[in-house]
Amino acid sequence: MIVDDERRILRGLTQAVLESGLPFTSVQGFHNAEEALRAMESSPCDILLSDIRMPGRDGLELAGAVRACCPSCKVIFLTGFGQFEYAQQAVKLGAFDFLVKPVRDEQLLQCLERALLNLKEEKKEAESIHKLRTRYEETVPVVRESFLRQCAGSERTSRNVNEIIAEGKLLQLDIALDSPVRFVVMRVNNRKKWIDSPKKSETLDSLLFEAVGTVKGESGLCMECWRDADFFACAWQSKSAIGSVVMEKQLRRALIDMQKILFERHGMDTSIMLSKQADNLEQWGISYQEALQALKQHISQGRGSIAEVPQGEGVLMGRLPGLDLLQSLGLLLEAGDEEQYYNRLNQVFSDARTTPGLPYRIYAEIVHLLSLALLTSVNKLTLTSEERDRLRIEEWTDMSCFYSVEQMSEVFHTVSAEVFKLTSRQRDMNRDVMSRLKWYISQHLSGDLSLSELSKIAHMSTAYLSRIFKETTGEGINHYVTRARIEKAMELLRLPSAKVSDVAVQVGYDNTPYFTKVFKKVVGVTPQEFKNE
């Protein structure tokens, strides 16, 4: 807000600020303090730039009224030369700065930039204070969560069980630490949707706790919940002395309801691992850690899966039949055969969806073979940093990024499509470069056509040029150069006046005997015999 009773000065200051490019959302100008104060009632300003000496209320009175209703406002005074008697009053009013008229645009804008920076720092400080206050208010829930995480962890063995139970009572936990417990470890499979910013990550937590709270009130079960890195954990316990079979039914029904709430209301796809029962606090750590590890290695075959920690060692399965189809995917990528490639890819994921009880190592092998085929093709491409970023290589080469067959299939189909597109573009570019290189060779048969020289022309390394030329033309580059030279020599030798020694030089051979040797090797007769024929 700019206030000055001199219209020319007000107009000049307003124009300078508007054209400065500084990030103001609004710039308003007023001729007196009364107008400015009326405007402030509906639209408070962040920075007030005001003349001091004005008819009616002066700038000092205006600043006092503004600071009373808007303490954070930065006040900058404009003073005429010799009016420094106002400086002391300005300081008392908490003025940010005062400038002497006439004010140069550069001086004004520097002052405004400092005021903006000061506002930004104050806002940041206020946000920090707010965060600290919020964290303080959350202290008790955090302590509870930390306590439960320690109970379910592996570092609490040195503590006395009775001491832990006593601490649990002090924290007013909803479960009895000395009674049987089942742990539920949950993973939000599409979690990345909520972690683009810290705010969204907090929303994820609140939604999970809300869903659990809803189910808790309807299920007749007691529970306590906490976060464990990317996982969400609950300790469940029956309120009454019921049998384990009844509790199992109650718990499964509660988990299905919770998954339904999360998916239907918030679009969350979750995977749940149910632990073995921990009969006492001593078994908490083993029971919980088993469930956590099992979920880390669990690949869901459908939406909303609920699995249990396997009893014993389980049955070791052989290879998935479709795995053999992945061995040749690299060749299909190189050949650009999309139809065969996707047929085999779809077959593998179809087998993975319909084969029950697949161990984690099978999924790991699928990811390994697909990543290997794709990376082999990618490493042969000349890519910009933007194209490499778009491929998101780290997201499909890391097994820990996968949580379901559906997601795995979607990721590899998307990446494969991108690699096919890049490979096709690279193939077209290579054909174009090789076409231009062949034209260059045809125009410079008498010159230096060594591999090192041609690599400079093509802007490729010698090894890369050799490989690409062979892949594109089906012929080695040195063999192609020799054939082009000999074919040109045959054309020249048909001229009646042509001499063998002259033709040799014209096609790049300074040594006639060597030319004769090469010519005979290619054509089957010497240059002279060819000419005589």
UniProtKB/TrEMBL annotation:
It comes from the Bacteria. Residues 435-533 form the HTH araC/xylS-type domain. Residues 1-116 form the Response regulatory domain. The keyword Coiled coil applies. InterPro entries: CheY-like_superfamily, Homeodomain-like_sf, HTH_AraC, HTH_AraC-typ_CS, Sig_transdc_resp-reg_receiver, Tscrpt_reg_AraC-type_HTH. SUPFAM superfamilies: CheY-like, Homeodomain-like. SMART domains: HTH_ARAC, REC. Residues 109-139 form a coiled coil. The modification 4-aspartylphosphate is found at residue 51. Keywords: Coiled coil, DNA-binding, Phosphoprotein, Transcription, Transcription regulation. Pfam families: HTH_18, Response_reg. This is Response regulator. It comes from Paenibacillus chungangensis.
